[in-house]
DNA sequence: CTGAAAGCGCTAACAA
DNA sequence: TTGTTAGCGCTTTCAG
């Protein structure tokens, strides 16, 4: 035990099994085309020696890394108020795990970080990237494209559905616009006549899409009934105050997410408006720890966030497989938009 | 542009700069002992070619990976209600970034995952590990120790401060016990006489330590004034109800974290008890998005979570540096316990 | 079906 | 100070 504790190599496994390194390698990588008895012997040797392949050596020759970068570009602290990313990560992690791929997390906070991330991706350390939280003016997509790494985006990027330099953009998103429409229609169905919207941060497509959904239903709505928020509770409060000032007769609010809805709720309570009697409120995301804990519990548009994460990973992995020969899987995967559902609670 | 897009190698850089591969390597790795003009030439070549070192090749010979695993072992969904992990991750990420180290995220959900993580760590893919959220019966520490990877734990592990097989356990935690004492003393100072405690999940040391702190102050307290929670709002509600039933005269509550405090607050409101007039409430963590959003805003024991993450990473990196020669840095780093501060808001 | 041998791109002795 | 050279551990033709 006082020997050098260096881990056993394939060489050692081969020696112990009485085969060549090549055969040992074949067995370790699936064992196709090796006769059963040998397979068995190698397996045993692996077991006994506690052999684990050296990923570095393997990558050096295969040029695969079995690792995927997850880039979260959120300069604001929003990330932390919102369980959103944790859920996505969980979904991604689950999917990657089943494919024996590792998750390399890249958090960025400012301009410098972008450069760093770009370099890292260009460095060929990972097989692909999953990228979140793009803002409209984000330099990241450019850097990523330059790096030439297969990428799937979380949320529709701001540059439109089209191809970008002949590489089609693949993303996973929920039906923000449709979900918003459903929420507003529900308010209409409740008999509300003065329906307002608190937007999200309008440099993100999710906020824009939800606003569009609102307008789809409220054609000819009073522009004063739209107040700009930023997805935070504080933003929701501010917007709600504005709204109350501009249109005291407001009887319903659709907020761009649960967090801003919770802010709105607080202002309404403070002003003595009863929810939902005086003002009905609907959020978006159906983030359980928020929606269920507000007073009153929040009606919200649900999106399956963990599933979105899982799907992103799956699309990326499929694309990677396709690349490395497995031509079977049909064409290049394309973007996916997941449906939403309205979850009714007390607030509307 | 239609050429093979394979990235340039050191060889190419050397050729372009008119030096040997060794010299090019030296420059890329800091350039010590290379004469200025050559350094300059190599730098330029790197620039022009857009050279990025192949990490796999480098690891193969150096046996360093410039990567650290972060293991979050939280089978419950608590992770997502709580911005806790996101904050720690941010701290860790910042620190790792300044050391050019990568963050490999390992999320585990069940027994199988533990095995997988153990194998991964044993596989020598990373230089070290940062491990969170241990529960008392967790098999992970054993696996990790077996893997022989330098590790720093987040939160005091359950097996005591001592060494484990001659390797001292290093962890970073906040002063849970002291913070709890301060909170309870504050309640006493407020003139409260019937002070209750809602515990966290008692299979975690943080919950046990906070309970101990409570008892430090409330020696001879009525055992009926301690109700078991689990760090969730639902657990907090349940515990609060019990408490109200067992001791209707309760006039103060110290909850093991903000989430359970928020649950308690809800029950108190529902029962018509005014906070803080009838019952004073204190939480723990001072998680802003929670503590500031409750009604009324929550007095809480603050711990600097991001700093804890940063510190964990720093300790680990120092240990790694020490290992690889840099003997300068003094002895092996030991555990750190960070102080807490009581943040007064309205609830107490 | 199996083995021998040639590298993948890089660092680190060792020579010059 | 710089260059030469020998691998790091693995996969993958190519013979046998």
TrEMBL record, chains A, B:
Gene Ontology terms for molecular function: DNA binding
Gene3D superfamilies per UniProt: 3.40.50.2300, lambda repressor-like DNA-binding domains
SUPFAM superfamilies named among the record's database cross-references: lambda repressor-like DNA-binding domains, Periplasmic binding protein-like I
Positions of the HTH lacI-type domain: 8-62
Pfam families for this protein: LacI, Peripla_BP_3
Presence of the UniProt keyword Transcription regulation in the record: yes
Key words of the record: DNA-binding, Transcription, Transcription regulation
Mitochondrion is among the record's keywords: no
Protein's UniProt name: LacI family DNA-binding transcriptional regulator
Lineage: Bacteria, Bacillati, Actinomycetota, Actinomycetes, Kitasatosporales
């Amino acid at each position: 035990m006082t020997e050098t504790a260096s881990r056993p190599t394939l060489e050692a496994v081969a020696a112990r099994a009485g085969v060549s390194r090549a055969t040992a390698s074949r067995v370790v990588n699936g064992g196709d085309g090796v006769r059963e008895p040998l397979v068995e012997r190698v397996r045993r040797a692996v077991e006994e020696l506690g052999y684990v392949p050296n990923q570095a050596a393997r990558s050096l020759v295969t040029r695969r890394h079995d690792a995927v970068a997850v880039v979260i570009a959120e300069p604001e602290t929003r990330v932390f108020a919102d369980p959103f990313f944790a859920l996505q990560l969980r979904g991604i992690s689950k999917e990657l795990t089943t494919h024996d791929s590792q998750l390399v997390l890249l958090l960025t906070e400012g301009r410098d970080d972008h450069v760093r991330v770009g370099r890292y991706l260009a460095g060929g350390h990972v097989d692909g990237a999953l990228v979140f939280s793009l803002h409209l003016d984000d330099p990241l997509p450019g850097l990523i494209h330059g790096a030439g790494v297969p990428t799937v985006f979380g949320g529709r990027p701001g540059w439109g559905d089209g191809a970008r330099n002949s590489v089609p953009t693949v993303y996973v998103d929920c039906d923000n616009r449709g979900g918003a429409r459903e929420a507003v229609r529900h308010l209409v169905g409740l008999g509300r006549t003065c329906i307002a919207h608190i937007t999200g941060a309008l440099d993100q497509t999710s906020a824009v899409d939800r606003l569009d959904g609102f307008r789809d239903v409220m054609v000819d709505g009073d522009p004063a009934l739209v107040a700009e928020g930023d997805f935070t509770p504080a933003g929701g409060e501010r917007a709600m105050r504005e709204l109350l000032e501009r249109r005291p007769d407001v009887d319903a609010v659709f907020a761009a997410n649960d967090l801003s809805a919770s802010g709105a709720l607080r202002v309404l309570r403070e002003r003595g408006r009863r929810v939902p009697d005086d003002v009905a409120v609907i959020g978006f995301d159906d983030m359980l720890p928020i929606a269920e804990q507000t007073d009153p519990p929040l009606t919200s548009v649900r999106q399956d966030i963990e599933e979105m994460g899982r799907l992103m990973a799956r699309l990326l992995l499929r694309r990677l497989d396709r690349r490395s020969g497995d031509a079977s899987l049909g064409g290049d995967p394309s973007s996916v938009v997941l449906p939403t559902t309205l979850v009714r609670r007390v607030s509307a």
